[in-house]
């Protein structure tokens, strides 16, 4: 079985519009959010699966993936700090284990597409509240939960998330959304999400809850207003790359919020009419069927 999100899905969206719901406070400003989700091909990430029923759910965080793809309770240790590299490890963790109840019932809808952002380095992160899910574990979830697929984020030989999307790295443009087995990181889950949608051939992406100033519902305890803490160089440097790649015949728009994104790029503001077009629903239903068909052929 091939669970890789590969060339079978390239340009499968054929110029469609996607609606991305991230975790920022601007989501609360959306009028008739459930209606918009129902009418559009909608993407939710990480803890968003607790609040919305998307057409595509994306996560790569080890703890989050395990929470929403396992049935039973499991144990993790809180990762306090340091690094977990391929050939060396210097880190600290809380010795008191955390018990988490699996909630796989939230992702078992066969019509919901699930994409897990994995990495190729095994042994460390699985037992800690840190890092991405290991690819082989991601494949195991694909076997258990239908319509689940795997992409891989690039790591250096030492397992570092480097290089990252940045105007300072000339490969950012050439490698953007090109190979789903080698997605270059950009400091936030939106970076692989936008590259996945680019690969799928979406022409327009409308985002909300991204780059907001204020408390994030999608990441408990995270306050994106504390820019120096949570919007470091990796996140900030990726913004102009997204801006450039989603220009010309493609468009990445912000519905509400996005204050930090617009500090480092020029993103058009979306209009509700773009999300209420009845054609979106027809195209969405066709796309869900095309993707589901690939699962049946697998």
What this model shows, in words?
This protein has helices at residues 33-39, 62-69, 135-144, 171-175, 190-200, 227-230, 233-245, 259-263, 272-276, 278-297; strands at residues 17-21, 41-45, 56-59, 73-84, 89-101, 113-119, 133-134, 148-152, 204-208, 251-254. With 298 residues, the chain is an alpha/beta fold. Strands 1, 2, 3, 6, 7, 8, 9 and 10 form an 8-stranded parallel beta sheet that branches. Strands 4-5 form a two-stranded antiparallel ribbon. Helix 1 links the parallel strand 1 and strand 2. Residues 220-229 have low confidence and may be disordered.
CATH class: Alpha Beta
With helices defined by DSSP (H or I, 4 residues minimum), what is the helix count? 10
How far apart the termini lie comes to 6 Å
The tally of beta strands, per DSSP, is 10
CATH fold-level topology: sialyltransferase cstii, chain A
SSE run? EHEEHEEEEHEHHEHHEHHH
Overall mean pLDDT stands at 91
Describe how the helices and strands are arranged.
Blueprint: E1 17-21, H1 33-39, E2 41-45, E3 56-59, H2 62-69, E4 73-84, E5 89-101, E6 113-119, E7 133-134, H3 135-144, E8 148-152, H4 171-175, H5 190-200, E9 204-208, H6 227-230, H7 233-245, E10 251-254, H8 259-263, H9 272-276, H10 278-297
Parallel strand pairs: 1-2, 1-9, 2-3, 3-6, 6-7, 6-8, 9-10
Antiparallel strand pairs: 4-5
């Amino acid at each position: 079985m091939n669970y890789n999100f590969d060339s079978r899905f390239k340009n499968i969206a054929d110029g469609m519009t996607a609606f991305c719901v991230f975790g920022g406070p601007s989501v609360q400003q959306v009028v008739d959010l459930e209606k918009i989700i129902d009418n559009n091909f909608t993407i939710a990430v990480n803890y968003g699966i607790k609040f919305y029923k998307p057409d595509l759910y994306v996560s790569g965080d080890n703890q989050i993936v395990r929470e929403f793809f396992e049935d039973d309770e499991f144990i993790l240790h809180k990762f306090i700090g340091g690094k977990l590299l391929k050939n060396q490890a210097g880190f600290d963790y809380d010795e008191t284990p955390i018990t988490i109840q699996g909630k796989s019932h939230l992702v078992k809808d066969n019509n919901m597409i699930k994409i897990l952002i994995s990495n190729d380095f095994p042994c460390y992160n699985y037992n800690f509240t840190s890092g991405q899910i290991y690819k082989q574990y991601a494949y195991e979830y694909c076997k258990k939960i239908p319509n689940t697929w795997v992409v891989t984020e690039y790591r250096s030989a030492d397992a570092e998330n480097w290089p990252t999307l940045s105007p300072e790295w000339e490969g950012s443009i050439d490698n953007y959304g090109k190979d789903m087995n080698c997605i270059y990181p950009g400091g936030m889950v939106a970076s692989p999400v936008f590259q996945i949608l680019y690969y799928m051939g979406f022409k327009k992406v409308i985002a909300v809850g991204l780059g907001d100033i204020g408390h994030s519902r999608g990441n408990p305890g995270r306050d994106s207003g504390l820019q120096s803490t949570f919007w470091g160089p990796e996140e900030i440097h990726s913004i102009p790359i997204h801006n450039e790649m989603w220009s010309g015949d493609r468009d990445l728009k912000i519905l509400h919020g996005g204050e930090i994104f617009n500090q480092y790029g020029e993103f058009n503001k979306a209009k509700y009419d773009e999300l209420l077009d009845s054609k979106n629903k027809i195209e969405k239903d066709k796309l869900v069927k095309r993707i589901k068909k690939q699962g049946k052929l697998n």
